[in-house]
Amino acid sequence: MRLSVNLNKIALLRNARGNNYPSVEDFAYEAISLGVHGLTLHPRQDSRHATCNDAIELSSICKKNSLEFNLEGNPFSLPKDDFIGFYELCDITKPEQITLVPDSIDQITSDCGWSPGYEENKLKNFLTKIKHLDSRISLFINPEIESVEFAANLGLDRIEIYTGPFANSIQSTNIKEIKTTISLIITRARELGLGVNAGHDLNLQNLPHLIDCGEIDEVSIGHAIIIDALKYGFHDTIIKYINTITRN
C-alpha cells in the first residue's frame, strides 16, 4: 500500500489569510522528504482551497522528485473565474494519475462516488480526450460491485473506493458486512485487471481495518492528516501514517 498525501487543507489555511502562508509547496517538500509515495490535489471551480496554480506547481515538484502526482476532480468542470477547467488542467500538468470524481460545484467534500451509467457518454468522451496524456485513470466509485464492472467496461486503469461508509461503520455493528463488501470489491477489481485505491475519512484508527480487507495499491488521505498534525506535528503525523500502512 502506498500513501498519497492530499494537501487541500494546507491550501485552505493559506487562503484564509490571503497570502502564501502556509505554503503548499513547503509542505509538499516536507512530505516528500519524509517518504510519502505521492501527492494529491483536488482543485474546485470556486478555488476554496487548492488552485490550478497549486496543481501546476505540485505537478512540477513531483516530476522533479520522481513522485506520483494525483490530480482529482470532476471531468466535466468547465473554466470559471480562476479555474481553467479540469481537462485543461490535466493537459497542462500531465499527472501520473487522474482520479475522476462526480462532485458538484457546491459539494463540501467528495462524499459519493460514481455509480453505473451516470453521465456515461460524457465520461467516455472525456476519456477519449485525455487518452494522449498517458496518465493512469482512476474512477472514484461507490462501494458496490456494479461500479467496479462499470469502471472495467470503460477501460479504466484503477478504481478508488469511496470509504466514507466504511469509516462510519468502524464503531457500528455492521463493520463486518462493510469489510466483506470492500473485500469483494477488491477481489473483483483484481479479476478484471483493475488496480485499487481507496479514500475518504481514512485515519490512523480505521486504516488497519481497511488493510484487513485485501490488497490496496494506494490510499489518499488529507483531512485526517492535518487534524492529526495539530496534535502530533506534521512530521510525526506523516511518519505515523507511513508506519501504519507499511507494517501491515
TrEMBL record:
Keywords: Cytoplasm, Pyridoxine biosynthesis, Transferase. GO terms for molecular function: pyridoxine 5'-phosphate synthase activity. GO terms for cellular component: cytosol. One of its GO terms (biological process) is pyridoxine biosynthetic process. InterPro entries: Aldolase_TIM, PyrdxlP_synth_PdxJ, Pyridoxine-5'_phos_synth. Coiled coil: none annotated. NCBIfam families: pdxJ, PRK05265.1-4. This is Pyridoxine 5'-phosphate synthase. It comes from marine metagenome.
